[in-house]
Description:
Helix content: 25-40%
Strand content: 15-25%
Largest sheet: 7 strands, mixed
CATH architecture: 3-Layer(aba) Sandwich
Low-confidence stretches: none
CATH topology: Rossmann fold
Strand order of the largest sheet: 1-3-2-6-7-8-9
CATH superfamily: Alpha/Beta hydrolase fold, catalytic domain
Shape: globular
Order of helices and strands: EEHEEEHEHEHEHEH
Number of strands: 9
Number of helices: 6
Radius of gyration: 16 Å
Distance between the termini: 44 Å
Number of domains: 1
Amino acid sequence: MPRIDGPRLAPKSGRTKQLVVFLHGLGADGDDLIALGQEWRDWLPDAAFVAPHAPDPCEGAPMGRQWFPLTLRDPAEFWRGVTYAAPALDSFLDAELLRHGLDASHLALVGFSQGAMMALHVGLRRRSQVAAIVGFSGLLVMEHGKGPESLTTGTATRPPIFLTHGDSDEVLPVEMFFYSKEALASAEIACQWHLSAGMGHGIDGEALRQAGLFLTQSFGLPYPA
Length: 225
């Protein structure tokens, strides 16, 4: 099993009471998302942030990484991919929680694109429920050939989830967002969501703001002044 690591951002307060793990997209690395922690530090002063680099090099992006190969030509590759990458991510999360002396109720997973697929897959299957999952421009991956009913038996916990997507996403079409939130609803898994008008495959300011507010709520913190 490959070991993963990446850049970190210490809590603003100097005391770690929550852990936010960023999971980057295909062809990027942990440096691509760790700066998002700076945007949320005032609202989450006791949160430590970490953005692990995915374990595998990305073909076509020499400096980038990938959680799994993705061609968008084979529907089965999504399920093969998330199940392949899950053990390394699970091991990393266990080690990070131990490092900070926290349990899963103080952990949030925040993923973009392929990283959102990983956040949703792993977050719903952890033995102990995480505090929150945020998925930017991603997809809830279902076992190939199965529908939302597979979530009933295939998941271990039901943490609060926030999904956001651009309605002009040219990489992962917005239909994937609607598919994901409707599948979660069918499985009776709570999901808040935001659709960014005119946004492509990226994260705009409003999506970032709403995701930050969702994390404060999920961690039981006061609404930011």
